[in-house]
Protein backbone atom coordinates (compact mmCIF):
# COMPACT_ATOMS: atom_id res chain seq x y z
CA UNK A 1 0.00 0.00 0.00
CA UNK A 2 1.23 3.52 -0.82
CA UNK A 3 2.47 5.48 2.21
CA UNK A 4 -0.36 8.00 2.89
CA UNK A 5 2.28 10.62 3.73
CA UNK A 6 3.58 10.44 0.14
CA UNK A 7 0.28 11.80 -1.13
CA UNK A 8 1.18 15.19 0.40
CA UNK A 9 4.63 15.32 -1.17
CA UNK A 10 5.14 17.29 -4.39
CA UNK A 11 7.53 16.72 -7.25
CA UNK A 12 9.09 20.11 -7.99
CA UNK A 13 8.69 21.01 -11.69
CA UNK A 14 12.05 21.60 -13.33
CA UNK A 15 11.05 23.13 -16.67
CA UNK A 16 8.27 25.29 -18.13
CA UNK A 17 6.32 22.47 -19.77
CA UNK A 18 3.97 23.47 -22.58
CA UNK A 19 1.09 21.22 -23.61
CA UNK A 20 1.76 20.14 -27.17
CA UNK A 21 -1.30 18.01 -27.97
CA UNK A 22 -4.71 17.19 -26.54
CA UNK A 23 -5.15 13.74 -25.08
CA UNK A 24 -7.59 12.21 -22.58
CA UNK A 25 -5.51 9.67 -20.66
CA UNK A 26 -2.05 11.19 -20.98
CA UNK A 27 -0.34 14.56 -21.24
CA UNK A 28 2.18 15.33 -23.94
CA UNK A 29 4.35 18.33 -23.15
CA UNK A 30 7.63 19.75 -24.32
CA UNK A 31 9.96 22.34 -22.83
CA UNK A 32 13.13 24.16 -23.81
CA UNK A 33 15.92 21.97 -22.46
CA UNK A 34 17.99 24.98 -21.35
CA UNK A 35 15.77 27.82 -20.12
CA UNK A 36 18.88 29.95 -19.49
CA UNK A 37 19.68 29.79 -23.22
CA UNK A 38 22.92 27.91 -22.60
CA UNK A 39 21.99 25.25 -25.14
CA UNK A 40 19.23 24.33 -27.55
CA UNK A 41 16.57 21.74 -28.24
CA UNK A 42 13.56 20.52 -26.31
CA UNK A 43 12.74 17.70 -23.94
CA UNK A 44 9.40 15.92 -24.36
CA UNK A 45 7.46 14.54 -21.39
CA UNK A 46 4.73 11.93 -21.70
CA UNK A 47 2.70 11.57 -18.49
CA UNK A 48 0.16 8.82 -17.86
CA UNK A 49 -2.60 10.84 -16.21
CA UNK A 50 -4.91 8.33 -14.52
CA UNK A 51 -3.88 8.69 -10.86
CA UNK A 52 -7.25 7.38 -9.65
CA UNK A 53 -6.13 3.90 -10.80
CA UNK A 54 -2.42 4.39 -10.04
CA UNK A 55 -1.92 5.29 -13.73
CA UNK A 56 -3.05 1.90 -15.04
CA UNK A 57 -3.33 1.88 -18.81
CA UNK A 58 -6.41 0.98 -20.80
CA UNK A 59 -6.30 0.54 -24.61
CA UNK A 60 -7.02 4.24 -25.15
CA UNK A 61 -4.07 5.16 -22.88
CA UNK A 62 -1.74 3.00 -24.91
CA UNK A 63 -3.06 4.38 -28.22
CA UNK A 64 -2.39 7.88 -26.96
CA UNK A 65 1.09 7.00 -25.74
CA UNK A 66 1.93 5.57 -29.15
CA UNK A 67 0.74 8.79 -30.76
CA UNK A 68 2.73 10.90 -28.29
CA UNK A 69 5.94 8.93 -28.83
CA UNK A 70 5.44 9.45 -32.58
CA UNK A 71 5.10 13.21 -32.01
CA UNK A 72 8.32 13.19 -29.98
CA UNK A 73 10.13 11.14 -32.60
CA UNK A 74 9.05 13.38 -35.48
CA UNK A 75 9.88 16.67 -33.73
CA UNK A 76 13.42 17.58 -34.79
CA UNK A 77 13.76 19.86 -31.76
CA UNK A 78 13.13 17.03 -29.29
CA UNK A 79 16.28 15.16 -28.25
CA UNK A 80 15.15 13.15 -25.23
CA UNK A 81 11.78 11.80 -24.05
CA UNK A 82 10.72 11.42 -20.42
CA UNK A 83 8.00 8.91 -19.49
CA UNK A 84 6.25 9.61 -16.17
CA UNK A 85 3.09 8.96 -14.17
CA UNK A 86 0.82 11.61 -12.72
CA UNK A 87 1.39 12.36 -9.04
CA UNK A 88 3.65 11.04 -6.31
CA UNK A 89 2.02 7.63 -5.79
CA UNK A 90 2.52 5.75 -9.04
CA UNK A 91 4.47 5.66 -12.27
CA UNK A 92 2.12 2.99 -13.64
CA UNK A 93 0.27 -0.02 -12.23
CA UNK A 94 0.07 -1.86 -15.55
CA UNK A 95 -2.92 -2.96 -17.54
CA UNK A 96 -6.25 -1.61 -16.27
CA UNK A 97 -7.83 -4.79 -14.93
CA UNK A 98 -11.28 -3.32 -15.41
CA UNK A 99 -10.64 -3.15 -19.16
CA UNK A 100 -9.38 -6.70 -19.31
CA UNK A 101 -11.73 -8.86 -21.34
CA UNK A 102 -11.65 -12.59 -21.88
CA UNK A 103 -8.97 -12.39 -24.57
CA UNK A 104 -6.92 -9.27 -24.03
CA UNK A 105 -7.67 -5.67 -23.19
CA UNK A 106 -10.90 -4.23 -24.57
CA UNK A 107 -11.50 -0.64 -25.58
CA UNK A 108 -14.64 1.12 -26.70
CA UNK A 109 -12.69 3.07 -29.23
CA UNK A 110 -9.51 1.10 -29.84
CA UNK A 111 -8.73 1.79 -33.51
CA UNK A 112 -11.81 0.16 -34.97
CA UNK A 113 -11.51 -2.86 -32.70
CA UNK A 114 -14.55 -2.13 -30.55
CA UNK A 115 -15.00 -4.98 -28.11
CA UNK A 116 -12.14 -7.04 -29.53
CA UNK A 117 -9.45 -7.92 -26.98
CA UNK A 118 -5.88 -7.07 -27.91
CA UNK A 119 -2.40 -6.25 -26.61
CA UNK A 120 -1.65 -2.82 -28.00
CA UNK A 121 1.13 -2.53 -25.46
CA UNK A 122 3.30 -4.83 -27.59
CA UNK A 123 3.53 -2.06 -30.20
CA UNK A 124 4.38 0.48 -27.51
CA UNK A 125 7.27 -1.63 -26.18
CA UNK A 126 8.71 -2.01 -29.68
CA UNK A 127 8.26 1.71 -30.32
CA UNK A 128 10.18 2.69 -27.16
CA UNK A 129 13.00 0.25 -27.98
CA UNK A 130 13.25 1.48 -31.60
CA UNK A 131 12.76 5.19 -30.90
CA UNK A 132 15.98 6.83 -32.15
CA UNK A 133 16.14 9.11 -29.12
CA UNK A 134 16.85 8.22 -25.48
CA UNK A 135 13.75 7.53 -23.35
CA UNK A 136 14.03 8.11 -19.59
CA UNK A 137 11.53 6.64 -17.12
CA UNK A 138 10.88 9.03 -14.21
CA UNK A 139 9.48 6.76 -11.51
CA UNK A 140 7.63 7.98 -8.44
CA UNK A 141 5.70 5.42 -6.41
CA UNK A 142 4.62 2.12 -7.92
CA UNK A 143 6.01 0.73 -11.15
CA UNK A 144 4.34 -2.66 -11.10
CA UNK A 145 2.94 -5.19 -13.57
CA UNK A 146 2.87 -3.79 -17.10
CA UNK A 147 4.00 -0.48 -15.56
CA UNK A 148 7.22 -2.15 -14.46
CA UNK A 149 7.70 -3.48 -17.98
CA UNK A 150 7.38 0.06 -19.34
CA UNK A 151 10.31 1.31 -17.25
CA UNK A 152 12.31 -1.78 -18.19
CA UNK A 153 11.79 -0.87 -21.87
CA UNK A 154 13.04 2.69 -21.28
CA UNK A 155 16.73 3.40 -21.77
CA UNK A 156 17.33 4.91 -18.32
CA UNK A 157 15.34 5.07 -15.09
CA UNK A 158 15.51 7.77 -12.43
CA UNK A 159 13.61 6.72 -9.31
CA UNK A 160 12.20 8.62 -6.36
CA UNK A 161 12.91 7.43 -2.82
CA UNK A 162 9.32 6.11 -2.62
CA UNK A 163 9.55 4.08 -5.84
CA UNK A 164 8.41 0.47 -5.59
CA UNK A 165 9.07 -2.05 -8.32
CA UNK A 166 7.70 -5.48 -9.12
CA UNK A 167 5.83 -7.81 -11.43
CA UNK A 168 2.37 -9.03 -10.46
CA UNK A 169 1.44 -11.10 -13.51
CA UNK A 170 1.25 -14.59 -11.99
CA UNK A 171 -0.86 -13.12 -9.14
CA UNK A 172 -3.50 -11.80 -11.52
CA UNK A 173 -3.32 -14.43 -14.26
CA UNK A 174 -1.00 -12.59 -16.61
CA UNK A 175 2.65 -12.48 -17.66
CA UNK A 176 5.01 -10.77 -20.10
CA UNK A 177 7.49 -13.25 -21.53
CA UNK A 178 8.61 -10.67 -24.11
CA UNK A 179 10.81 -7.68 -23.27
CA UNK A 180 9.30 -7.82 -19.77
CA UNK A 181 11.27 -11.01 -19.12
CA UNK A 182 14.15 -10.98 -21.61
CA UNK A 183 15.25 -7.36 -21.29
CA UNK A 184 14.73 -7.49 -17.53
CA UNK A 185 17.06 -10.50 -17.38
CA UNK A 186 19.71 -8.54 -19.31
CA UNK A 187 19.40 -5.77 -16.75
CA UNK A 188 19.43 -7.70 -13.48
CA UNK A 189 20.52 -11.23 -14.50
CA UNK A 190 18.49 -14.40 -15.00
CA UNK A 191 18.23 -15.44 -11.33
CA UNK A 192 16.96 -12.06 -10.19
CA UNK A 193 14.61 -11.68 -13.18
CA UNK A 194 13.13 -15.09 -12.39
CA UNK A 195 12.81 -14.13 -8.73
CA UNK A 196 10.95 -10.95 -9.72
CA UNK A 197 8.52 -12.89 -11.90
CA UNK A 198 8.21 -16.15 -9.96
CA UNK A 199 7.71 -14.62 -6.50
CA UNK A 200 5.89 -11.37 -7.38
CA UNK A 201 7.55 -9.48 -4.52
CA UNK A 202 7.89 -5.72 -4.32
CA UNK A 203 11.33 -4.06 -4.26
CA UNK A 204 12.18 -0.63 -2.89
CA UNK A 205 14.29 1.96 -4.68
CA UNK A 206 17.49 1.07 -2.78
CA UNK A 207 17.23 -2.57 -3.82
CA UNK A 208 16.42 -1.56 -7.40
CA UNK A 209 19.56 0.58 -7.49
CA UNK A 210 21.64 -2.20 -5.99
CA UNK A 211 20.36 -4.60 -8.67
CA UNK A 212 21.02 -2.23 -11.58
CA UNK A 213 17.32 -1.91 -12.32
CA UNK A 214 17.50 1.90 -12.03
CA UNK A 215 20.24 4.46 -12.66
CA UNK A 216 19.70 6.86 -9.77
CA UNK A 217 17.54 7.36 -6.69
CA UNK A 218 16.67 10.81 -5.38
CA UNK A 219 14.18 12.42 -3.00
CA UNK A 220 10.70 12.48 -4.51
CA UNK A 221 10.69 16.27 -4.41
CA UNK A 222 13.85 16.37 -6.59
CA UNK A 223 12.78 13.67 -9.04
CA UNK A 224 12.05 15.92 -12.00
CA UNK A 225 15.04 18.19 -11.37
CA UNK A 226 17.38 15.19 -11.36
CA UNK A 227 15.69 13.61 -14.41
CA UNK A 228 15.99 16.87 -16.33
CA UNK A 229 19.68 17.12 -15.37
CA UNK A 230 20.27 13.70 -16.93
CA UNK A 231 18.31 14.75 -20.02
CA UNK A 232 20.29 18.00 -20.29
CA UNK A 233 23.56 16.06 -20.16
CA UNK A 234 22.36 13.97 -23.11
CA UNK A 235 21.04 17.05 -24.95
CA UNK A 236 24.60 18.42 -24.99
CA UNK A 237 25.86 15.33 -26.83
CA UNK A 238 25.80 14.33 -30.49
CA UNK A 239 22.22 13.16 -31.24
CA UNK A 240 23.33 10.82 -34.00
CA UNK A 241 25.99 9.27 -31.81
CA UNK A 242 23.31 8.58 -29.16
CA UNK A 243 21.00 7.17 -31.84
CA UNK A 244 23.67 4.77 -33.09
CA UNK A 245 24.62 3.77 -29.55
CA UNK A 246 20.99 2.92 -28.74
CA UNK A 247 20.72 0.89 -31.94
CA UNK A 248 24.05 -0.77 -31.12
CA UNK A 249 22.96 -1.75 -27.60
CA UNK A 250 19.77 -3.30 -28.99
CA UNK A 251 21.18 -4.86 -32.17
CA UNK A 252 21.95 -8.20 -30.61
CA UNK A 253 19.18 -8.14 -27.97
CA UNK A 254 16.46 -7.47 -30.55
CA UNK A 255 17.76 -10.02 -33.06
CA UNK A 256 17.30 -9.36 -36.77
CA UNK A 257 15.01 -6.39 -36.04
CA UNK A 258 17.78 -4.85 -33.93
CA UNK A 259 20.37 -5.43 -36.63
CA UNK A 260 17.98 -3.96 -39.19
CA UNK A 261 17.65 -0.75 -37.16
CA UNK A 262 21.42 -0.37 -36.87
CA UNK A 263 21.89 -1.21 -40.56
CA UNK A 264 19.29 1.30 -41.70
CA UNK A 265 20.84 3.94 -39.48
CA UNK A 266 24.06 3.44 -41.44
CA UNK A 267 21.98 3.95 -44.64
CA UNK A 268 20.91 7.28 -43.25
CA UNK A 269 24.55 8.26 -42.72
CA UNK A 270 25.68 6.90 -46.10
CA UNK A 271 22.98 8.88 -47.92
CA UNK A 272 24.68 12.02 -46.63
CA UNK A 273 27.95 11.09 -48.36
CA UNK A 274 29.14 12.29 -51.78
CA UNK A 275 29.72 8.65 -52.71
CA UNK A 276 26.05 7.72 -52.25
CA UNK A 277 24.91 10.95 -53.91
CA UNK A 278 27.08 10.16 -56.94
CA UNK A 279 25.05 6.95 -57.43
CA UNK A 280 21.78 8.89 -57.26
CA UNK A 281 23.02 11.70 -59.53
CA UNK A 282 24.44 9.33 -62.15
CA UNK A 283 21.12 7.50 -62.34
CA UNK A 284 19.19 10.73 -62.77
CA UNK A 285 21.68 12.06 -65.34
CA UNK A 286 21.70 8.72 -67.23
CA UNK A 287 25.51 8.35 -67.04
CA UNK A 288 28.00 5.88 -65.59
CA UNK A 289 28.60 6.61 -61.90
CA UNK A 290 32.17 7.73 -61.20
CA UNK A 291 32.71 5.68 -58.08
CA UNK A 292 36.44 5.54 -58.91
CA UNK A 293 36.62 9.04 -57.39
CA UNK A 294 36.12 7.57 -53.92
CA UNK A 295 38.77 5.88 -51.76
CA UNK A 296 38.70 2.17 -51.13
CA UNK A 297 39.17 2.66 -47.41
CA UNK A 298 41.34 0.19 -45.52
C1 LIG B 1 -0.32 -0.49 -7.55
C2 LIG B 1 -0.78 -0.99 -6.21
C3 LIG B 1 0.35 -1.80 -5.53
C4 LIG B 1 -1.11 0.25 -5.34
O1 LIG B 1 -1.60 -0.15 -4.11
P1 LIG B 1 -2.33 0.97 -3.18
O2 LIG B 1 -1.46 2.14 -3.03
O3 LIG B 1 -2.75 0.26 -1.94
O4 LIG B 1 -3.61 1.48 -4.00
P2 LIG B 1 -4.95 0.68 -4.33
O5 LIG B 1 -5.96 1.02 -3.33
O6 LIG B 1 -4.69 -0.76 -4.54
O7 LIG B 1 -5.29 1.31 -5.75
C5 LIG B 1 -5.93 2.58 -5.84
C6 LIG B 1 -7.02 2.46 -6.87
O8 LIG B 1 -6.42 2.12 -8.11
C7 LIG B 1 -7.02 0.95 -8.64
N1 LIG B 1 -6.00 0.22 -9.42
C8 LIG B 1 -4.72 0.05 -9.10
N2 LIG B 1 -4.10 -0.66 -10.05
C9 LIG B 1 -5.02 -0.95 -10.99
C10 LIG B 1 -4.99 -1.65 -12.21
N3 LIG B 1 -3.86 -2.22 -12.69
N4 LIG B 1 -6.13 -1.75 -12.91
C11 LIG B 1 -7.27 -1.18 -12.47
N5 LIG B 1 -7.36 -0.49 -11.30
C12 LIG B 1 -6.26 -0.38 -10.58
C13 LIG B 1 -7.46 0.19 -7.41
O9 LIG B 1 -8.43 -0.76 -7.74
C14 LIG B 1 -7.98 1.32 -6.55
O10 LIG B 1 -9.24 1.69 -7.04
P3 LIG B 1 -10.48 1.91 -6.02
O11 LIG B 1 -10.05 3.07 -5.16
O12 LIG B 1 -11.64 2.23 -6.91
O13 LIG B 1 -10.62 0.66 -5.26
C15 LIG B 1 -2.05 -1.88 -6.31
O14 LIG B 1 -3.12 -1.06 -6.72
C16 LIG B 1 -1.91 -3.00 -7.24
O15 LIG B 1 -1.34 -4.03 -6.90
N6 LIG B 1 -2.48 -2.86 -8.46
C17 LIG B 1 -2.60 -3.90 -9.43
C18 LIG B 1 -1.27 -4.17 -10.11
C19 LIG B 1 -1.49 -5.21 -11.18
O16 LIG B 1 -1.68 -6.37 -10.89
N7 LIG B 1 -1.48 -4.80 -12.46
C20 LIG B 1 -1.82 -5.59 -13.57
C21 LIG B 1 -0.68 -6.51 -13.96
N8 LIG B 1 -0.89 -7.00 -15.29
C22 LIG B 1 -0.63 -6.18 -16.29
O17 LIG B 1 -0.14 -5.09 -16.18
C23 LIG B 1 -0.96 -6.73 -17.60
C24 LIG B 1 0.27 -6.84 -18.40
C25 LIG B 1 -0.05 -6.83 -19.82
O18 LIG B 1 -1.00 -6.24 -20.26
C26 LIG B 1 0.86 -7.47 -20.74
C27 LIG B 1 0.55 -8.74 -21.20
C28 LIG B 1 1.41 -9.37 -22.09
C29 LIG B 1 2.55 -8.72 -22.50
C30 LIG B 1 2.83 -7.44 -22.02
C31 LIG B 1 2.00 -6.83 -21.10
C32 LIG B 1 2.33 -5.50 -20.55
O19 LIG B 1 1.49 -4.73 -20.21
O20 LIG B 1 3.49 -5.18 -20.39
Describe this structure in words.
- Its cofactor is hydrogencarbonate.
- It catalyses: 2-succinylbenzoyl-CoA + H(+) = 1,4-dihydroxy-2-naphthoyl-CoA + H2O.
- One of its GO terms (biological process) is menaquinone biosynthetic process.
- This is 1,4-dihydroxy-2-naphthoyl-CoA synthase.
- Its EC number is 4.1.3.36.
- The structure is a single chain.
- The protein is α/β, with parallel strands linked by helices.
- The protein folds into 2 domains: 234 residues, Alpha-Beta Complex (2-enoyl-CoA Hydratase, Chain A, domain 1); 50 residues, Lyase 2-enoyl-coa Hydratase, Chain  A, domain 2 (Orthogonal Bundle).
- The protein has 11 helices and 13 strands.
- The strands form 3 sheets. It has a 7-stranded mixed beta sheet, sandwiched between helices. A 4-stranded mixed beta sheet has the order 5-9-11-12. Strands 6-7 form a two-stranded antiparallel ribbon.
- The longest helix has 17 residues.
- The termini are far apart.
- The relative contact order is 0.12.
- The model has no long low-confidence stretch (mean pLDDT 95).
- The structure holds o-succinylbenzoyl-N-coenzyme A.
- O-succinylbenzoyl-N-coenzyme A binds next to strand 9, helix 3 and helix 4.
